[in-house]
Design goal:
single chain, mainly beta, Ferric Hydroxamate Uptake Protein, Chain A, domain 1, 4 helices
Length: about 350
């Protein structure tokens, strides 16, 4: 990834030594008002935006690989992957993990988490709490709360542009800009757009689309008001499952002759369109090129106001309009029979009365 940072000529002089990670005031897994990472008693990991950029993540789960006790299974592509925390089952997407954006769950459906929450340069840091208070302070979070905290605009204009080109002919552009609108209002813009093939090449443009996010911040006398809108319109290829066969001698799983498990793919330009005929004569036409598609409009409002030293208000609300599409090949679970020609498959599974 190649990136370019810009900033205005205005500079500020720090009033003290640089803040360390342990001095960061955390907002995840704690009901305290100004609890720092050092003061927190939970199993907490903080990843900065710079940490995430060094990992060069393609999908959401790639941003979690540096978190201790978190296992990521990302072989499906950019979305629809699995995650396990502290040995909990890893085959059911985000079943025991609650993913938040600025303190609110992105979705309560475990199967669409990494469809509506994406990686972008707008992320300031990630706070991950494993166990402990996670199961108390959020639903579906017995394993972990993972909170993506986004950058806000400041009175100093600054921005970043990133360009990524992958060897499988995928081009992605990322951007972030933050700056002032007026004395009390600031804006933060971020997002990305990508187009191309996936890691296991399909031979067609299976990855296309992106995200746009805008945040408006209003400084109040004793607080802050944040208004956020996020738009996602993206399609990703799903490159699982991969067909294998069972060795008759050892009982282990082995590759099928002619299929490379390292680079092979069940998707190709020759099998993208699937037609299903029903008994009433109707027909359903599906296109695997649409892959795992998502269209989402997300509106968020957050108000923080301090009435006094001991009395304060924290309110957050979010409205999401989500449409999810899933078009993918599945090789089935009928053993080696699922790899047979249709005629032979029917012969092997004929029921005699």
């Amino acid at each position: 990834m190649v990136s370019y940072d810009t900033a205005s000529a205005q500079t500020t002089t720090p009033s003290g030594p640089p803040r360390t990670e342990l001095e960061t005031v955390i907002v995840t897994g704690s009901t305290g008002r100004r609890t720092t990472a050092l003061e927190s008693s939970v199993a907490l990991t903080i990843l900065s935006g710079e940490d995430l950029q060094r990992d060069a993540p393609k999908g959401l789960v790639d941003t979690l690989k540096s978190i201790p006790s978190v296992y990521v299974q990302d072989s499906g592509g950019s979305s629809s992957n699995n995650i396990s925390v502290r040995g909990m089952p890893a085959g059911d997407h985000f079943r025991y993990v609650s993913v938040h954006e600025d303190g609110l769950p992105v979705n309560y459906d475990q199967y669409t988490i990494d469809a509506v929450q994406r990686y972008s340069l707008g992320i300031n840091r990630v706070e991950a709490v494993r166990g402990g208070t996670s199961g108390v302070l959020s639903p579906n979070a017995s394993g972990s709360i993972i909170n993506y905290i986004y950058k806000k605009g400041t009175q100093r204009s600054q921005g970043t542009i990133g360009l990524t080109y992958a060897s499988f002919e995928n081009l992605r552009t990322d951007f972030f800009y933050g700056g002032p609108i007026s004395e009390n209002w600031t804006v933060a813009l971020s997002g990305y757009y990508q187009q191309g093939d996936s890691e296991r090449q399909n031979g067609y443009t299976g990855e296309r689309g992106g995200e746009f996010r805008i945040n408006l911040t209003r400084k109040l006398e004793k607080g802050e008001l944040n208004l956020t809108y996020k738009k996602i319109d993206e399609h990703n290829g799903f490159v699982l499952p991969l067909p294998v066969q069972r060795d008759a001698t050892t009982g282990g799983l082995i590759a099928i002759p002619g299929f490379d498990l390292l680079d092979g793919n069940v998707n190709s330009v020759n099998n993208t369109r699937i037609s299903t005929l029903f008994t009433d004569g109707s027909r359903l036409e599906q296109n695997v090129n649409d892959g795992l598609g998502v269209e989402a409009d997300v509106f968020t409002i957050r108000l923080d106001y301090d009435f006094s030293e001991n009395l304060f208000l924290r309110h957050s609300s979010r409205v999401s309009n989500l449409s999810r599409l899933s078009q993918a090949h599945f090789t089935g679970s009928a053993g080696n029979n699922s790899l047979l020609p249709a005629g032979q498959y029917l012969t092997n599974n004929t029921i005699n009365f």
